[in-house]
Amino acid sequence: MNRIISLFAAVLAVGGAPAFATEYQVDPAHTTVQFAVRHMMVNTVRGQFQKVAGVAKIDDKDLTKSSLDVTIDVDSIDTRDAKRDGHLKSPDFFDAAKNPKITFKSTKIEKSGDKYQVIGDLTMHGVTHPVTLTVDTFTSPVKNWGMLVRGVSATAKINRKDWGLAWNKVLESGGVLVGEEVQLQIDAELNAKAPATN
User: Fold this and answer.
1) CA dist 157 to 22, 50, 76, 88, 119, Å?
2) What predicted TM-score, i.e. pTM, was given to this entire model?
């Protein structure tokens, strides 16, 4: 028994103590995941997903040890046009019937100047590729109704064709109907239970 205890202590000494992080839930009522893409090469059309869930584990002593795991409901897509939303859910684009969820799971967080970058795996349309989110804003927690609340804003750019979302239509004047580059804007509110006070 003593030998087992000694071995366990040695493993802890080598690996170090586990990081202490506060777990925050993504607040769907105060979180927006927006996307923007060029339409007919003359205008930018924006949309968002209405249903977002996720967990962020935040280590305030060392933010690079934090993590993020988010799930988005594809069927909740909203571009303010029901016909366009239906097309985006079809096999031409997301194929929501076969691929109902979009997920992002962080694999690494790095400090870049005065900002942080969250690198992770973005899975949609059954395809996974790494994506880097640049964190533009990350607030300190405030207390509200027994909760710790903080906000985070991040951006990224992706090429939709990398995930197999390749549908397009050539215009009479040349060019294409839908741009390939998609700009992402995430504005999330995170909630955690406030620690008890004596």
Assistant:
1) 29, 20, 21, 19, 13
2) 0.85
